[in-house]
């Protein structure tokens, strides 16, 4: 008995269809957009790398969370540059505005 193997496929090529079947397209799109945002910040504002997260995209607005007000201010100052890079990047989405909230520090016990 000979088993025929299917040709190998990249997992990244399988994910969109699998996500669609499971009803997870929006979550996959947001995860990709979040990775894209992280890469763009690392490239354009290295000092803010790892200090902001994409929470969601609503009607062309990127809702972000920043770890500090200084990071939020830097992202606001660089908004046109960051948004242009985000729109042009693979995994980016159409967006024309940033909305940034500063994460509240956890209370010390």
Helix % is 40-55%
Radius of gyration over all CA atoms, rounded: 18 Å
How far from one another are the termini?
Answer: 66 Å
Text of the CATH class: Alpha Beta
CATH architecture term:
2-Layer Sandwich
The number of distinct β-strands equals 3
Q: Which stretches are low in confidence, meaning pLDDT under 50 for 5 or more residues running?
A: none
State the helix count: 4
Query: Within the CATH hierarchy, at the fold level, what is the topology?
Result: GMP Synthetase, Chain A, domain 3
Mean pLDDT level: 86
β-strand amount: 15-25%
What spatial form do the alpha-carbon principal axes imply? elongated
Number of domain units = 1
What does this structure look like?
The chain has 109 residues and is of the alpha+beta class. The protein has one domain (12-102): GMP Synthetase, Chain A, domain 3 (2-Layer Sandwich), CATH 3.30.300. It has four helices and three strands. The protein has helices at 11-22, 25-44, 69-77, 79-88; strands at residues 52-58, 61-66, 97-102. A three-stranded mixed beta sheet has the order 1-2-3. Helix 2 (25-44) crosses helix 4 (79-88). The termini are far apart.
């Amino acid at each position: 008995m000979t088993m025929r193997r299917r040709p190998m496929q990249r997992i990244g090529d399988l994910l969109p269809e699998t996500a669609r079947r499971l009803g997870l397209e929006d979550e996959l799109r947001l995860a990709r957009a979040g990775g894209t945002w992280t890469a763009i910040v690392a490239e354009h504002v290295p000092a803010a790398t790892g200090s902001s997260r994409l929470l969601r995209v609503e009607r062309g607005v990127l809702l972000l969370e920043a770890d500090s007000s200084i990071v939020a201010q830097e992202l606001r100052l660089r908004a046109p540059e960051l948004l242009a890079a985000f729109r042009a990047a693979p995994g980016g989405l159409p967006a024309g505005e940033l909305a940034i909230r500063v994460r509240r520090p956890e209370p010390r016990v």
